[in-house]
Design a protein that fits this description.
Number of domains: 1
Strand content: 5-15%
Number of helices: 9
GO cellular component, one term: mitochondrial inner membrane
Protein name: SFXN4 protein
Distance between the termini: 18 Å
Organism: Ptilorrhoa leucosticta
Number of strands: 4
Strand order of the largest sheet: 1-2
Shape: elongated
Structural class: mainly alpha
InterPro entries: Mtc
Membrane topology: Multi-pass membrane protein
Length: 223
């Protein structure tokens, strides 16, 4: 996260964002819902291919603004502000959510198990799978979007107020700020939605409802 936030060259930015999204995609793959299964193809192989595609696409999208600025030598202060300060946060948030949705797409394609309040599995629901993936993608977007946005705001005020008078000290200060924001946002992101998600009866498929009279159902959201 720290190295990706300080890159100024498109090639370096692409490489470090590729590393960043590789890690987050692997984390997503390991901590998803394990319900989807198929005999027609290797599900894990499909998720790996989807993950590699999402990683490459996200790294390209993240590095594209820098490539555009460097190629056309756009040196105006407004353009530099937009590309280097304002764009990274929403781009990292969106691409992080995108990689989650891609690597866990089998969950809303094939569905995930839903349980009653006693823990008994009552069926496999695509709607629950979609809800689980979208909630996780949103929490990941908030986590990394905030982590890349808030330090820029804080560093602006630090420099404006001249709290740090030695320019060489700005690097370590930025690193500390990014680490602090990331550490603070991790529990916020993980607690946005409960690990054991809840879905109402009206939101489930008819074939599941026909087998039970329960009104509330639960599923494993993943991380």
């Amino acid at each position: 996260v720290i190295i990706s936030s300080v890159q100024r060259q498109a090639k370096h930015s692409f490489f470090w964002q590729f590393v960043f999204h590789t890690y987050t995609t692997a984390f997503t793959l390991v901590n998803g819902n394990g319900t989807p299964k198929t005999e027609e193809y290797s599900l894990q192989q499909k998720q790996v291919f989807l993950g590699l595609g999402a990683i490459s696409y996200s790294a390209c999208v993240g590095a594209l603004p820098l490539s555009f600025v460097n190629r056309y030598t756009l040196k105006s202060s407004l353009m530099q502000l937009i590309v280097r300060k304002l764009l990274p946060a929403p781009l990292f948030g969106l691409t992080s959510a995108f990689t989650v949705a891609m690597v866990r797409s089998p969950e809303f394609d094939n569905g995930i198990e839903v349980m009653d309040r006693n823990g008994r599995v009552v069926g496999v629901s695509k709607k629950a799978g979609e809800k689980a993936v979208m909630e996780t993608a949103l929490s990941r977007a908030v986590l990394f979007g905030t982590t890349f946005f808030l330090p820029e705001v804080l560093m602006y005020f630090v420099q404006r107020a001249r709290f740090v008078k030695n320019p060489r000290a700005l690097g370590p200060v930025r690193m500390f700020v990014v680490m602090s924001v990331l550490a603070g946002m991790l529990p916020v992101s993980f607690s946005m939605f409960p690990q054991c998600g809840e879905i109402k009866r009206a939101d489930l498929e008819p074939e599941i409802l026909s087998s039970t009279e329960e009104t509330e159902f639960f599923y494993n959201r993943g991380i």
